[in-house]
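dumping the sequnces here before i forget
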Amino acid sequence: MFEDLLAGATLLARWDVLVALLVGSIGGVIIGAVPGVGAAVAIAILLPATFSLEPIVGLTMLLGIYGSSMYGGAIPAVLINTLGTAVNALTSYDGYPMTQRGEATRAVSLAYSASFWGGTFGILCLILLSPVLALIAPMFGSREIFLAALLGIILVILAHRGQIFAAGMLAMFGIFLQTVGLDPVTYTQRYTFGYSFLTSGIDLIVVVLGLFALSQSFFLLTEANSTPEAKPISGSLTTGFKEVLKNKRVATVASGFGVILGMIPGTGEFTAQFMSYTYAQKTSKTPEEFGKGSVEGLIASEAANNAVPPAAMIPLLALGIPGEALTAMMLSVFYVHNVIPGPQLFQNNIDLVYALYLALIILNVIVVAFLLVSTNLMTKVIQIPTRFLGVMILILALVGVYSLRNSLTDCMIAAGFGVLGLILKRLNLPIVPIILGMVLGGIMEVKLRSSMPRLKTLMDMIDRPIAFILFIMIVLVVLLHLRTLFKEYQSNKPSKDHDLHDTEQG
Amino acid sequence: MLRVRTLQSLFKRYRRPGDIVFAWVFLALSLFLLLQLFQQTEIKPGAKFAAQPRFWPAVSLIGMAGFAMFHLLGSAWSERIAGRWIEVLLWVRSIEYAIWFIAYAAIVPYLGYLPTTLIVAVLLTIRVGFRSRFIFAVAAVCAFLIVFLFKTLLQVKLPAGQVYDFLPDGLRYIMLNYF
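..and the predicted 3d for all of it:
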């Protein structure tokens, strides 16, 4: 393992890689801090711009954005009760009350420290788990990957409680979208309606740019303009580290939740945050403080959400299966740069895997160092008028869409998906199932097809140990969901209305 | 008091005005696509059922239509929320910005990336209601920086403007390659 780690470090020891990591991580913090942008929009826009870069350079830059946006997201959550990234939702519950009682510096410092704890814990777990993954990953053949992707789709649909039909409909739409075009095996046209531009299919990046970047631009442009106000903070930001150390039990358990839930597709930061928060409250000596500015609450939510990105890389790197929108985008980032995540990656390119882990560690250090000196600058970034931001996102989105293949048709398709994304956001409906439907649908089609020659009966699909375990998991997930529905029906407790559409922003 | 009570309540999403309109449109789209299944996909003799090119479009569209049907039923049975058509109007209004985007992309090959971006940034800033010269200047500077970052530094592939052909030799070369 140490040899592989060293080989990974050698891959990173280049000035262009380090610059990319620096730009990515600082850019990610800034992007995360601006309410209404988010890492998904940034990765979608920047992805085509990294085509010309070397794989490791492009990957580390986008990885930087992916891993650091949540740090930035904590700033508006704590200071102005507005979410930079939606996964900071619970951060605002305790962070903002602290700001209101004049403890903004302490709250921000705690958020950074807990984030650092969570992020580092997640990466260490990833490093320690790697040898196990390298052992298990080759046991995943076509049918296992098919079943894992199927499990991912089911979890993504079921995670949208109260909107399962909408999530199912949109996930199926995503699966359908990836079938459009020329079938690569039989060379027959599918849903091209005779149009040549549809023959090559609908590009995932065009859809992502439309649904995430353009829709956000249209959303901001059609909403009333607002300029969030964040007051600058003063005092040392390093005190939070001591407080996190005092609460290391909460921070570690929360990070553990982040790691476990991060590995399961379709659950991610939000569930991890919620579970950690509940755990922290139940075990706290002052549970009544939660929601009113509790230190433990803030630590639990921030440590949990920052432990998720490294953990979400596990199914992505080992099996090529993304669990949420950002990892789905990261998957296309890998493909674009000719790195194919999956069992072979662990066997043949373990140095690259370790290089990515190390990059994640470095980015956590860069981000904390950057934030310790520039938080007040970030409070200025938050104050960009929302409509102006909409104009800039629209301009940036063109770079992403048009640079793919200089196609006006792509721009039209992206604009169409932009309007669809706006409607979904306005309706409080999820966007992520479409993207995951496209990605996981493609994986399911390819893997089911390639496993066909070995299958004589349907039971052959689950006659291997891992395939059988996955099958049992699918059955259990569905049964547990039905049980929850039944319990909910029995208790019949109405809950308060709230918006959650922002959770799709990453 | 804990403001988030249960995992269920945390994940629940609630309907917004216009939901039923979207549900109808999506169901209609699903059924239209499903009806096209036999015209738009083929069956290859000899291939297994699940390996047929028609298999996944069929699975996805049947699933899509089924879920869309239940979503519509859920919408129809829910209490009506006021403001349905105002919401739909807002969706239609957003098409204006989609047209801005397409027009921006259509003009780039003629006017060039830098001039088009500068013009679009300033005009769109005016369109969305800003009237301060400072904001226009900031929009122009941001537009220039975006062009400089992506086209000049990162050399992202964007078409050069035909209008650049009318520029003097040295300047034409710079504009064609870097802006």
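Residues 95-178 of chain B form one domain.
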